[in-house]
From TrEMBL:
Subcellular location: Cell membrane
InterPro entries to which the protein is assigned, alphabetical: MATE_fam, Membrane_Transporter-Flippase
Coiled-coil intervals: none
One GO cellular component term noted in the UniProt record for this chain: plasma membrane
Naturally occurring in which organism (per UniProt): Paraburkholderia megapolitana
Keyword Protease belongs to the record: no
Transmembrane segments: 28-50, 57-77, 151-171, 191-213, 219-245, 257-276, 282-305
Keywords of this entry: Cell membrane, Membrane, Transmembrane, Transmembrane helix, Transport
Protein's membrane topology: Multi-pass membrane protein
Protein name: Putative efflux protein, MATE family
Domain of life: Bacteria
Length: 316
């Protein structure tokens, strides 16, 4: 799987750059193609269909590599066909070179964000360890709830990314007066769209979780945990909008520091304490408490620090 990381990174990079140019349709079809191909290749490599080798447990990794490679090739060809500004024509390739100013900006924004993601991953390992101590039923319920949560979080993440892109366009064009409207629109859409996803998840949860689990006791536990934490995804989406706008202006250290503080100083201690006091459900209450705390912290930073600064284009 490590061999496939460069391909996965390139696909992620190209889809992100495409969204930055205002083209969100190509990334949608590219990722849909990658997902569809992976769904076909995985069983084919497990069963040895169409003369392919039977790879067993390695099938998932190999199919992902194949799917992402083909999706990347398709996106490159599609860009050339539609005359996309990022299409790899000879003129573009001749002018590709390292710009130290842009590299510094990328590192200044990217490194803190990477540290926050590392903190989140480490916290998830710790929380999973707590869950595992409650037995196999708890671990199975944890996995099922995470699957449903990953779908609920899609609009919250997407709206945050979109808000950041629109804000960066406004800042780059020198039209910072639009930022307030972008924030308000992003918050409103999150309430409507993410709220609809959460409502749908609550309504369809018994059916969806039944696709992953068969034991009635585990299904009941998963439903209980989902009802505890599901609503808080809307709160997370509101936070993503605020953070996305601030990051569009290059303000990263403050929002990232607050995010890491919430994970290390709120999520983990609250999860440990509630797990001891009320059991496994306390871990999910810790998620919800953390999302609310993050919204409060980021709102205060946005209102009393970021909004009082002069917003300018990033200097490269």
């Amino acid at each position: 799987m490590l061999l496939g990381m460069p391909v996965i990174f390139l696909l992620w990079l190209t889809t992100s750059m495409s969204r930055g140019t205002g083209d969100a349709v190509t990334p949608l079809w590219t990722l849909a193609l990658a997902t569809g191909l992976a769904l076909v290749f995985t069983p084919a490599l497990i069963r040895g269909w169409w003369g392919l080798p039977q790879l067993g447990v390695a099938s998932a990794a190999v199919s992902t590599l194949l799917a992402f490679t083909l999706a990347l090739v398709w996106s490159m060809l599609h860009w050339r066909r539609i005359g996309h500004p990022l299409a790899l024509y000879e003129a573009l390739l001749r002018n590709v070179r390292l710009d130290r100013g842009i590299a510094r900006s990328i590192l200044r924004i990217g490194v803190p964000s990477s540290l926050q993601m590392l903190t989140m991953a480490t916290a998830e390992i710790v929380l999973l360890g707590m869950v595992n101590r409650h037995g196999s039923h708890a671990t199975a319920a944890y996995g099922a709830v995470n699957q449903v949560m990953s779908w609920i979080q899609l609009p919250a993440m997407s709206l945050g990314i979109t808000t950041s892109i629109l804000a960066s366009h406004a800042i780059g064009a020198g039209k910072t007066e639009r930022l307030g409207r972008i924030v308000r629109t992003g918050l409103s859409l999150n309430l409507a769209v993410t709220g609809s996803f959460v409502a749908g998840a609550y309504a369809l949860a018994p059916t969806v979780i039944g696709l992953f689990l068969k034991d009635d006791a585990v299904i009941a536990l998963a439903l209980q945990l989902l009802h505890i934490v599901g609503w808080s995804v809307v709160v997370l989406g509101l936070t993503n909008v605020l953070v996305g706008v601030m990051r569009a202006s290059g303000t990263v250290l403050g929002p990232t520091g607050l995010g890491m503080f919430a994970i290390l100083c709120i999520e983990l201690p609250v999860a440990t304490w509630l797990n001891f006091r009320i059991g496994m459900s306390g871990i999910w209450w810790a998620y919800a408490v953390t999302f609310v705390a993050m919204l409060g912290l980021q709102s205060l930073f946005y209102r009393w620090v970021w909004s009082r600064r002069e917003v300018r284009r990033l200097s490269t």
